[in-house]
From TrEMBL:
One of its GO terms (cellular component) is cytoplasm. It comes from Coccidioides posadasii (strain RMSCC 757 / Silveira) (Valley fever fungus). Keywords: Lyase. It is an enzyme of class 4 (lyase). It comes from the Eukaryota. PANTHER family: CATION TRANSPORT PROTEIN CHAC-RELATED (PTHR12192), GLUTATHIONE-SPECIFIC GAMMA-GLUTAMYLCYCLOTRANSFERASE 2 (PTHR12192:SF2). GO terms for biological process: glutathione catabolic process. GO terms for molecular function: glutathione specific gamma-glutamylcyclotransferase activity. This is glutathione-specific gamma-glutamylcyclotransferase. Residues 94-113 are annotated as: Disordered.
Length: 232
């Protein structure tokens, strides 16, 4: 069920490192983190330039009903997944159904929602050692550079980012948070630069190896000609 958390929390990508799922203890990745609004308001916002008009009181997501028979299993899985410095909170979740009319997606408007209900959510703690307090570490360019090269037990960090953007686009609004899309653009640009360097390296290798191969082939042909002449 699509909807929003309102006022109590804020979700930002790159505020927290990942030493397990999308990075390693030696080279942390970057993940999206939901934090308490009161804590977030004490921090500088390095993403302000890419989403100056965003509704900062809303965090979009999806809520799931877990049957009682699976609750213990699911809780154990989530506790393991969110092991790196998160705590469980119960906060109002506002279900939301976007308009079916053609045109631009509706702006987030909880007034269109059904009555809210309490939902369990994992929120990052200020005491989390993985939280990036240094504004330089949370700068979009720095975050993109880390994402582009990081990998953990769950896979590449950039895969996490790309899947997050698709998930946000698919919850009914048709678009992701501006700062997430900005990070996707930055990481893909870095990928393009690296692919270009890789292609150039391959070309440089070909420039070296092809003449050598041609030389060896010519040398072999000369040996064949000499052998034929001797036989004649």
């Amino acid at each position: 069920m699509t909807g929003v958390f309102q006022a109590i929390s804020k979700a930002m990508f790159g505020d927290s490192g990942s030493a397990d799922h999308r990075g390693t203890p030696e080279s942390n990745g970057r993940v999206v983190t939901v934090i308490e609004r009161s804590f977030w308001e004490t921090l500088s916002d390095p993403h302000q330039d890419v989403q100056p008009n965003s509704n900062e009181s809303l965090v979009w997501g999806a809520a799931y009903h877990i049957p009682a028979s699976h609750a213990e299993e699911v809780n154990a899985y989530l506790d393991h997944r969110e092991i790196n410095g998160y705590s469980v909170h119960y906060t109002p979740f506002h279900p939301y159904t976007p308009s079916t009319q053609e045109g631009e997606p509706d702006a987030p408007d909880p007034s269109n929602s059904s009555p809210p209900f309490l939902c369990m959510v994992y929120i990052g703690l200020p005491t989390n050692s993985q939280f990036l307090r240094n504004p330089t570490d949370r700068d979009p360019s720095s975050v993109a550079g880390v994402i582009a090269k990081s990998r953990g037990q769950s896979g590449e960090n950039k895969e996490y980012l790309y899947l997050l953007e698709k998930a946000l686009e698919g919850i009914g609004l048709g678009y992701a948070d501006a700062h997430v899309t900005d990070l996707v653009r930055r990481v893909r640009a870095l990928e393009g630069v690296r692919e270009g360097r890789k292609s150039q390296s391959e070309i440089d290798v070909e420039k070296i190896t092809i003449p050598e191969a041609e030389y060896r082939e010519d040398e072999a042909m000369e040996e064949v000609d000499e052998h034929v002449e001797r036989k004649a």
